[in-house]
Amino acid sequence: MTTTDATRMPVITRAPRTAFAPALPSAQLGTPTVPVQIDFDYDVAIVGLGYVGLPTALAFHHAGSRVLALDNSAQRIDTIRAHSADLLDDDRTRLLSALDHPGFVLTADEELLARAESVIICVPTPVDEHLVPDLTILRAACAMVVANAVEGQLILLTSTTYVGCTQDLIVDALSKRGLEAGRDLYVAFSPERIDPGNAAVSHDDVPRVVGGTTPECEVRAEALLKRYARSVHVVHSLAAAEMTKLLENTFRAVNIALANEFADICRALDLPITEVIDAASTKPYGFMRFMPGPGVGGHCIPCDPHYLLWQLKTKHVEAPMIRQAMTEIAGRPGRVVDRARDVLSDAGRGLVGARVVVVGVAYKPNVADLRESPAIEILAGLRDHGAEVAYVDALIPSIRMPGGGILTATSDPSSFNADLVIIHTKHDWADLSWISPSAMVLDTTYRELSIPRRILL
Length: 457
Ligand SMILES: NC(=O)c1ccc[n+]([C@@H]2O[C@H](COP(=O)([O-])OP(=O)(O)OC[C@H]3O[C@@H](n4cnc5c(N)ncnc54)[C@H](O)[C@@H]3O)[C@@H](O)[C@H]2O)c1
Fold this sequence. Notes:
Elements: E1 42-47, H1 53-62, E2 67-70, H2 74-81, H3 89-99, E3 104-107, E4 116-121, H4 136-147, E5 154-157, H5 165-176, E6 186-189, E7 208-212, H6 215-225, E8 232-235, H7 238-268, H8 273-280, H9 304-315, H10 320-346, E9 355-359, H11 374-384, E10 388-392, E11 398-400, E12 406-408, E13 420-423, E14 441-443, E15 454-456
Parallel strand pairs: 1-2, 1-4, 2-3, 4-5, 5-6, 7-8, 9-10, 9-13, 13-14, 14-15
Antiparallel strand pairs: 6-7, 11-12
Helix pairs in contact: 1-3, 4-5, 7-9, 7-10, 10-11
The chain binds nicotinamide-adenine-dinucleotide.
The site of nicotinamide-adenine-dinucleotide has 29 residues, from helix 4.
């Protein structure tokens, strides 16, 4: 079944169990909190195998679930099969065993969704160049899941989105097919909180929040997530679960903007910002440590608050603090360029013709994710001002620059003879020993204390 026109789809009843998926040994099954349905071939299907979906699929498989791992990109499936996906070491180990196991099926075949007892959607929810939510991918994925939905199935949306989205794209679309959430099948929303590249907190240990269309939907979604997650916090609506994620990431955006502003204030008053933050962080309550930086990247903080701001516009609700925070964050890479110009000028030279190398271009340490990375804007801004730029990042071989052209990572940054080194992202294992003690270094991370002639952003 390939059409995505949900309104014309007939209601499909449960698919018959096929022979390929033998029951797993009981030791591998974990402790299911609801009776296991025996007429589905897969316990859970994961739609979208990116930074969220692949670790989620592996967590379920590790917990003993039969997993259908679905991605519509053949390239992504090849990358996963070739063990080249950007994963933490533990997930790499999980992937090695999953790919050899009959209870883990990697596919692009959406028709198999009808054979899954639960379907989890984890596809991207970006914003466009006008900072308006781009729901194209999410709409297509939801339409596909709705078109293939069967009675008794649980559909769980985890993509970050606006409040009311699960109702609009899944519950209402299902009802057009004559399927009522809470009666014929089950629908819930659970925001994802994974922190790619962070090995300190295991994905399985991060509590999940979930809200369902009805109490029955809640119970089933909670039981599903408990197969791998150590704790699940239930809220009593889809909307509350959707809003929880928007609060979490808006909270981060606002606090990062505040940390950036404090860094600028401390520089103006000639105070050491890191010492001030370290000191404030000793307070055991009422303070949470946020570090200033070169801006924010990735698929969450630069995007998610815009889902809220966009939605509020239609209600004529103002959110000036959030808007201001997002504006400050968006302007931060430009400040890096300005600061680079100033420090070079203090050293008696301009940006025109200066040689500037950027260290680390991924949006954060230990990931190969360049989405929304401030480094791209910084490199482009420096180049626009006449600088000759290079970068070093073992995880990012090349960058497509705004306005065209490809910039390839330098393998020997010391031979670039930089007038200025800008530290943007420091991967845990990255070696900075090539930076000579006499080099002028602009540390936008505020963390590289060992660099001798460090200038802070
Ligand atoms: N990346 C993070 O750190 C993070 C953290 C928390 C929440 N989130 C949220 O999770 C969601 C997913 O983000 P991500 O970073 O994993 O995205 P991603 O770009 O890394 O991966 C998405 C995957 O979905 C696949 N896909 C797209 N449409 C599909 C379809 N119709 N059917 C099957 N596969 C499809 C893509 O090919 C891709 O492999 C977003 O809403 C994001 O905001 C992300």
